[in-house]
Model the fold of this input.
Amino acid sequence: MIWKRQIPILIVTIVGLLTLFGWFIDEPTVESFVNDDATQWYDILASFAIFLGALNLMKMQINKIIKKKPGWIYSIIAILGFIFAITAGFFIKGVEGVEWGAHVTTDGTLFKWMFDFVFTPLSATMFSLLAFFVASAAYRSFRIRNFEASLLLVSGIIIMIGRVPVGGIISSWFVMYILVLALGIGLNIRFKNKMITLAVVGGGILAVTTAGMLSGWPLDQPSIFYLPVLQDWIYFYPNVAGTRAIMIGIGLGIFATSIRYILGIEKSYIGE
Amino acid sequence: MKDKQFWLYSGGFLLLLLVYWLGGHPYFKAERFVMFAAILLMAGTLIYYIRAANRHEEFYLRPIPGLKAVEEAVGRSTEMGKPVLYVPGIMDMDQVETVAGVIVLGHVAKMTARYETSLNVPVSRSIVMKAAREACRESYMVEGHPDMFHDDMVHYITDDQFAYAAGVNGIMIREKPAAVLYMGKFYAESLILAETGNSIGAIQIAGTASQAQIPFFVTACDYTLIGEEFFAASAYLSQKPELIGGVKGQDMIKAGIITIIFIAVFLRFINDVWGIGPDILQILTVQ
Done:
């Protein structure tokens, strides 16, 4: 039990404290441990652990083929791909005169061919799926269901239009007219009184038109209604405020969790 | 440790620090003192509340819908006779989020063991595979179902981001799990995974501290644990007093940070306008 409980906790505590307080210690050995050695140790351990992963992957795929589980045909491709990658990486370079090790980045070698013409296109295919998923996700989140969703929709539209060239040629006066009409819709929903709606919309249009005529309809004035400026404001103020609030929470969560591990309060990671 | 002992040791430690500081603090990076003091203060606050919780002081933990829904999701899988799919992110155990994900997995594994529901955990790192396997094995043993645990319920797919996403998507499409849980560190693959999960009609719960991925999860999942909620998951699911005390301590630190923000804004304002007081920005900037 001591090997599975106390020793791991002791290692976590010692290494955790050393890494945490090593940042404040002005001593080259400690600094080098915190900045380089500790991460290199981890990388070395992780490199050895990859064998475990590879073996597990092969075991799973072979089992799937033997038991003819659904989709077993793909397992054959997975195993063939694995064997091919190992062969191209360790046994057949495909080109003479290239050093082992350098062959993974040299053009014309079997490994580089596999990387450029099999791996990269497959990864790019998966990545490109994001475009379609973003569209479907945006459609779902922009559906008007409540006040928050409406706010998100309006902010999203302002950000999207304000960030493209056409946003720069939309006059702030046009936006003001839209706002007057939106205000009219809001009041009509709230009070259901045609006279109030007419008075507000009529008064608003008259006020905007008068102000525009007096000022000569400048495209970007008043700047608060100019879309590129408005989107900048949304992006740099309300958005940053929300983001930072989440960031503070995340930072605190990470700190508290780390302290719990270092002090041995949280022991779930060793299954306790 | 008893209260008297605790305060004695803490006082002794602080006294030693004071003596060290007055003695010229050799080997200490003095320009990082503010950060050092902040760490001590925050750690002290956490320890204080953890001890208070251990003394059976009651702390209110606000209901987090996403965590309440975990049991509901496992229950739904049981009713439908379908597996629970748990995705612990794509990063290694050197990321706190992955560790937090593995911890939550331990709790989820307890539920699946209790309900006798099958659990599938595809991972993208070998070390995570070992850690997740241990967490699941222990959970099944604790619940009295060691026979139900098998090594292959936690299996490795690949280290590569999009290949992993493709592998997990394949599992979703083939096995049609009734519940999918994403708990860990995610990057661009988050939306690919969550939208596929959405398309098969699974109940989806996500928890991550990857800020850029939170909107994607909010859009595509039924429940999302945002940032700190994810780190509080272990406390919430285990209901252990020492962990709940830690969450309370975290909240108190947050209150302290908000106060510091207000004071700092005020000090910065008077320093900028009238040149009175210290340059708080200089003091608080991490050197």
